[in-house]
């Protein structure tokens, strides 16, 4: 448990530094869903920057966790349904965990406070219901 | 231009290392964090507890300067109001997050670790496309 918390704190510092660098140098809010939408190309955006960001993201994860790290996923059907919901939800909410729960809260934005409260509460409720069913 | 590109790469690298180090890349751990009524693993709260103050500090530095380090414009303050679209979107996102334990950043990072996550990422891209195409924001 203690090691879990220390890892979470250290990871959180790196995530905060990433958001800070992206704001201080690029003048942009680090929101993964917005960056992904920009990269996929139906929104005008800085394609090169977004592409390089995701290249770094993959490299960083591989560097620390190492490919082949055993990660248990839910069933394929559930992955697809969850993916569709996450995709629709983050575009309607104009942000996800990074844009709202880290950057938005750091800026004290009212929209981000509301969004974070709602998606955390709903996700916790889904897990609680799944436990009963 | 080159500095901006390198900075984006660095931000991605830091973000990916942070997701992996914290355990956010592991859906089972995320589901354990969300399971407050059951076998709750609160450790991931440390991610937000550390990330938010570091981000806030660096944002404040930038805002005090009034410009980016390269002299570019900064985004304006977060002043928008809460509306139904935001709340509905957050609720739909929460549903998906609770079903799989994956949100967009970790899901994309997991492409480097667990190929099976591609199914989620493709579905997510389709969902994003659907929302942007058929439920566009009124400007």
What do these coordinates show?
The complex is a heterodimer of chains A (133) and B (139). Chain A has 6 helices and no strands. Chain A is an all-alpha fold and 133 residues long. Chain A has a domain at 73-133. In chain A, α2 packs across α3 and α5 (97-106) packs across α6 (110-132). Chain A is globular and about 50 Å long. Chain A starts with a helix and ends with a helix. The two termini of chain B are 30 Å apart. Chain B is globular, with a radius of gyration of 18 Å. Helix content of chain B is 65%, strand content 0%. With 139 residues, chain B is an all-alpha fold. Classes of the chains: A mainly alpha (133), B mainly alpha (139). Chains A and B meet through α1, α2, α3, α4 and α5 of A and α1, α2, α3, α4 and α5 of B.
The chain pair forming the largest interface, with residue counts per chain, is: A-B, 111 and 113 residues
Mean pLDDT of chain B: 95
DSSP summary, beta strand count of chain B? 0
Principal-axis shape of chain A:
globular
Described by strand count, sense and barrel closure, the largest sheet of chain A is: none
The rounded Rg of chain A comes to: 16 Å
Give the structural class of chain B. mainly alpha
Kindly report how far apart the N and C termini of chain A lie. 28 Å
- Assembly type of the chains comes to heterodimer
Spans of chain A of at least 5 consecutive residues whose pLDDT stays below 50 are: none
Helix fraction of chain B by DSSP (H/I, runs of at least 4): 55-70%
Largest sheet: number of strands, sense, barrel closure of chain B: none
How many separate domains make up the residues of chain B?
1
The total strand number of chain A stands at: 0
Give me the Rg of chain B, rounded.
18 Å
Strand content of chain A: under 5%
Question: Count of helical segments of chain A?
Answer: 6
Order of helices and strands of chain B: HHHHHH
Main structural class of chain A: mainly alpha
């Amino acid at each position: 448990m203690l090691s879990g918390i220390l890892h979470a704190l250290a990871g959180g510092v790196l995530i905060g530094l990433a958001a800070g660098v992206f704001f201080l140098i690029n003048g942009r809010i680090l929101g993964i869903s917005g960056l992904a939408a920009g990269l996929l190309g139906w929104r005008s955006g800085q394609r090169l920057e977004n592409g390089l960001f995701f290249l770094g993201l993959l490299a960083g994860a591989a560097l620390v966790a190492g490919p082949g790290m055993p990660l248990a996923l839910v069933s394929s059907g559930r992955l697809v349904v969850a993916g569709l919901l996450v995709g629709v939800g983050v575009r309607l909410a104009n942000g996800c965990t990074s844009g709202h729960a880290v950057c938005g809260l750091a800026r004290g934005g009212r929209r981000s406070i509301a969004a974070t409260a709602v998606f955390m509460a709903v996700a916790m409720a889904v897990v609680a219901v799944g436990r009963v069913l | 231009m080159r500095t901006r590109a390198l900075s984006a790469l660095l931000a991605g690298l830091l973000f990916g290392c942070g997701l992996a180090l914290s355990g956010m890349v592991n859906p089972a751990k995320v589901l354990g964090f969300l399971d407050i009524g059951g076998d709750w693993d609160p450790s991931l709260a440390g991610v937000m507890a550390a990330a938010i103050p570091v981000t806030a500090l660096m944002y404040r530095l930038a805002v005090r300067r009034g410009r980016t380090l390269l002299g570019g414009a900064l985004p304006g303050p977060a002043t928008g109001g809460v509306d139904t679209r935001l709340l509905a979107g957050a609720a739909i996102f929460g549903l998906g997050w609770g079903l799989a334990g994956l949100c967009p950043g970790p899901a994309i990072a997991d492409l480097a670790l667990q190929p099976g996550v591609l199914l989620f990422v493709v579905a997510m891209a389709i969902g994003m496309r659907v929302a942007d195409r058929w439920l566009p924001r009124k400007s």
